[in-house]
Specification:
Structural class of chain A: alpha+beta
Distance between the termini of chain B: 36 Å
Number of strands of chain A: 22
Structural class of chain B: alpha+beta
Number of helices of chain A: 27
Radius of gyration of chain A: 38 Å
Strand order of the largest sheet of chain B: 1-3-2
Oligomer: heterodimer
Helix content of chain A: 40-55%
Largest interface: A-B, 29 and 22 residues
Distance between the termini of chain A: 62 Å
Number of strands of chain B: 3
Strand order of the largest sheet of chain A: 3-4-9-6-8-7
Helix content of chain B: 40-55%
Radius of gyration of chain B: 16 Å
Number of helices of chain B: 4
Shape of chain B: globular
Shape of chain A: elongated
Largest sheet of chain B: 3 strands, antiparallel
Largest sheet of chain A: 6 strands, mixed, barrel
Strand content of chain A: 5-15%
Chain lengths: ~900, ~120
Amino acid sequence: MSGLKRWCARLLEWRRRREIERDQAEELQSHFDHLIDDHIRRGLPPAEARRQASLELGGLDQARSLARDARGFRPIDALVADTQLACGQLRKTPAFTLAAVVTLTLGIGANTAIFSVVDAVMLRPLPYTDPDRVVVLWEELSTSLVGPGVVGLPIAPMRTSVAPANYVDYQARVRAFDSLAAFAPTGRNVTGDGTPERVPAEEVTASYFRVVGVSPAMGRAFLDSENVAGNDRVAVISHGLWQRRYGADPAIVGRVIELNGQPHEVVGVMPADFAGPSTAQQLDQVSVWLPIVFEPEVLTNRQEHIVSVIGRLTPGVTLVAAQQELAAVSQAIGRDFPEAATTRAYADVLRRDQVTAVRRMLMVLLAAVGLVLLLACVNVAGLLMVRAVGRQREIAIRYALGASRARVLFEQLVQSLVLAGLGGASGLVFGVWITRVLVRLAPATIPHIQTAAPDLRVVTFTAVMIVITALAFGLWPAWQASRTDPIDTLKAHDRPAAGGWVLKRRSGLLIAEVAVSTIVLVGAALMIKSLVTLNRVDLGFDPTNVVAASVVLPPAQYPTPAARLIFFEALETRLRQEPGVRTVAFGNRLPLRGDWISGMVIDPVGAPVEGPPVMREAGFQAVSPSYFETVGIAVRAGRGLLPGDVAGSEAIAVVNETFGRALLGGEHPIGRVVRRGPGMPAITIVGLVGDIRRTGRADEAGHRAAEMVPQVYLAAAQTTLYPLPLRDIAVKVEAAALGRVRPAIERIVADLDPNQPITAARTLEATLALGSANKRFQTALFMIFGGVAFGLALVGIYGVVAYGVSQRAAEIALRMALGATRGQVLRDVVGRYARQVSAGVAVGLTTAYLSSGVVADLLFEIEPTEPLVYGLVGVLLVASGTAAAGIAANRATRVDPMLVLK
Amino acid sequence: MSDRTDVLQGTLALMILKTLDSLGPQHGYGMARRIEQVSHDALKLNQGTLYPALVKLEQQGWIRGKWGMSENNRKAKFYSLTPRGQKQLVAEEDKWARVALVVGRFLTPAGGDPS
């Protein structure tokens, strides 16, 4: 306690040490003067008095020095001196300092950035009350749709959202949940109060806000009574919408706003930082919450999997217990309602569930970046070790002059700390910058990443890394340096005694360095190969220069398919007249913009089949006649859709090639008849078109090319056959006209109906890019890490070889003087290092091969053990490593042998 | 200083504190003289002993130095006891008395009772 106080006093005094020393000198002078005074008083003459006083007191300088020691400035002075010495030495060797600091900057910066991202995406708790108790529920389907009079086919178990009828049962029967909430994503046209806009919305049960434990910042949440038809004309809006559209109106609660043309009373405004549990799946923030109302027929149909469900665990109940109870209840429901017998429900913590898709990617990135830091440390350790050897003579002389080991060690440690401090500071700055870049580049499919910023924990993480790094790469060489016997070192003229020790470790370091960078490069190469493979997958359609947009016509104003058809036909006609437009088409869903799977029965040819008809599934599209031309789908046989295919004429359809293959056992589909259900109107297949990958090149998990799905294209003018509300418009234009399409659509839509907003207006290519954004992001990161690792390895090899050759300069010079050519000497030296590089590559490739399983989930259509990748990386590293060794050796041997030997 | 007793480690602080306690604020030279007088010249304090001790006491916060004018009309640094210094003095006096007692017992012939 008092020790600490004295240290504080010491430090305070040290800061004004000049002043204090002047003071001390004056005080001692005063003492001296008083003594003279006394002698004079006793009768001595002044000169004699002064002489006598000097004799009695001894040197003033010695007293001053003793007083100074008493103040305890010496350790502080030593620290300052060591720091200055260290800085001076670092300044004297700028190449070494730069190499070390850049190395550390890259390692620490990359770590800070990735840790910040991992922290934001996976570690930081959700901004809910007791977020660990919030769980998400889902159900699993194992057969295709079944319906009255039809049976389903077994399918691979598929995760699906929850049927409201089941939700009601879970709520009533599962005790493990304190409360459950159901919600469904939707959208609303906001009109009145300015230009119409379409905003993401969510229909929710009143319990939604209770489950997350967040209340509106203004007003109230929904009442249970508002989840009933007739009471549901209320809305809770987001802070953003309140600010943006309603000018932060303080009287917003109670105000009536228009949603889909219907008046709704605003009852609450959510806090600014609120993001709903669906954040992970949605690209845009939800702006409006509305009460969900379950229609009676929905509550009796256990196959309508239309709501997402979250719940809060009852206090004291574990997740495992809740999972077991939920499984039991869902299986009991399955027994009671055979048509839903294939359903089983699962639950998991919301936080974990949200990041399922990206967890593996982040973990692998963290591992890769950790390897880069390891490499950085090995590099700097190598540099310091080589330096320690270079300073052996100096250290030996210091020992000979009586310096203590502690003092020498301390000085080395200070030097490492200064280096680590410099590297850490610039690494932190670099890390902050990289984090910003990552956040900007990151696809919206990575939840919470937008909130990534280095905070206190990240800074702590970096600081700990710096200290560990400093100790790791500083103390060990320093310890070794301090153990050298001064006599031995001084006796050996030009070859430091500890050289042998360093030599042994150096080859180990070189091998380790090459091995680590091999691993990172294999990862990077796998990602690149994966992305190239992905981009080669044939889509089957041509997204080039196609702009798409959606106009969601609300049923209130456009109640019938005919009314919607008139709107879109008018829009198409007007758009065709715009300059640069080649073709225009519309439909319910364009490729890359969602899917619409429906069931159907296919009439048998010839004799009727025994038993109930089987419900088959296919994607259903209602499209205008120019659709195939606009999105570049080839008509293979029969005919496409014609302007004459209208309501009242024969109901026809065009199907894709997979339809025949998958559903008709390879039979030709033209002429076959499909129906929406038994006894429904016949739809005759008249044409065959090429297959397309509607949802993009990769399947949902991103591992394989998307499968071809049977598709049925109906005429847009015949949509009474299936409920396929027209929504999307596609415009194929000359490249030069791309920028003009969106304004043209906005102008014409506003002209046709000023209350209709257009949404998601973007090129199909942009949408396609969004789909592979995760893959491109991870590939870009791996390429950066791979590049850094590669660069570090080459710098490391160069340094080790250059140093090694310079250590053997005398031996080499002797050989050359005895008649060896430079070429022979070089071959010899390079050959030895090439063997070490190859050993490192071998170790790296083996390790990468054995641990390749961890990246399997991140790859597209290639095996993590792809031999080509390993071969290329191996050849690249052996070749460039040998080249680096060659260049270093070449430069180091370009000396006159006589000069060295003298 | 050969035949003069070296100041026992730790006792100098006590002597300084006690001097300041009995004389009030005093400069270094005055303290040295006073300690010499009281010890009948058995202790001779040179600057190299006194001033480091003053520095330590001041860093510990037991005494505080302030520039003033001495009786010789010279600038001198006057030290005074702080309240914490007062407390420390009491504690040190106690401790010293106990040590003196114990050491005294050792030095008294066996069986003798000093009390």
